[in-house]
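tool=predict chain=A
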Amino acid sequence: MNEPLKSVTTLKRLLSFSLLLVALAACQPDATNQQNLPPTAIPFPTMTPGRMIQGVLPESEGIPLDGVGLANPATAVALANRPTATPDYGSCPGSGNASLPAKPTNGRTTLAAVVTYLTNGGIPATLSNTLGSWELLGESGQVRTDVDFTGEGTPDILMTYDAPDDGGTLALLSCIAGQYTALYQAITGGDAPQIVSITDMNADERPDILFDSYGCTDDDDDNCTYRTQLISWQPEDGRFISLLNGPITGSEAPTITDVDNDRVQEIVVRLTDDGSASTGPLRTGVNIYDWNGSNYVLSIVQLDPPQFFIQVVQEADRNFARMEMDKAIPLYEQALGSSTLRYWLNDEPTYLKSYLYYRLLLARAYSDDDGLLTTFQTALAAYPDANTAPVYIAMVNSFWNGYQVTNNLHSACLEVQAIISARPEAVGLLNRYGSRSPIVTAQDLCPF
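tool=predict ok
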């Protein structure tokens, strides 16, 4: 084939592939409406919305120019834009008679002491012994001297340790212009960070570092989480960057696996903690983070059915706050009719159903729903004695009376706010569910 014709054919193929990427970019999961049934598996989103990325695919690699057979277009782009090795900045210091300094007193001097020791001829392979003699490795600390993270041709040094004062620390050192220098440092606190994986996760031929740190809140030893980070060398900027928008938190350490067989590893975080008195009830399930061409983003949220009454109520309230009453009303009804959901607090049977009647009444008034009158009558029948009924029945009556007189949601809410001001338990009863539960305000209770 002559060269002009080949160029035209290649251009057409690239245009088709780019259009495929733009079409796939519009497909993003909706992780906000989790019902109490197992959700259907959601196809992996693979691109940043509204953004097109392109790459010339090398035919010699056996990769089709139209992207067929690749579940993730971002995989194709990563494969097509593989890095080249950066120049060798100079030979590393030879083995010398570097003496080991005394144990440093803080994190800054610890890193400086290691850099000085190596630059003076200290052998990288002895760093484990060095940090061990300073009692900084603990159970999870380690030193790796066998991976070239920067691509300049010589192994770099990765250390995780418990620095004095700073606590858990991850540091990356490299030999540049004949001396060692720190290229990256992350202070995580607590014990030394744990390396989860060192591998090329996104198929760009650069090793990525997935690591986590485990810690508990200062006032509660039961409220503990893993904080996971992912970094990689960015040759264009000459530095290590995060491939996450922020640390991933979870009750378990993550794992990596190629869930959708697209040659890119996904980060899988299993949610196994169903909560404590401190956190409140938590949903179990799994979160999956996938590569979108520029970083890793939360791609799939697949939660198990809720176990507790309040979890359905809180999900319904989230939909209510977004004024998505078509989603809120079925959840309120589901909670009212459930015989399997468990109560988180012992006194919930006394007041929580009355709260549901109140919220259902507001949602139906907003939606001009035919079931408005029935909801009001059912609430009164369930709590016939107004003197002993929970505060939410007084709010039902107040809203109903105000709405019947004015046919105006705002005016009806003004009547309800007077009840809430006089009886603050209307808010307090809903704010007892732990640090990871939503905080309810008086305005939330009648927002019209």
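Confidence is low (pLDDT under 50) at residues 1-68, 83-90. Residues 3-25 form the longest helix (23 residues).
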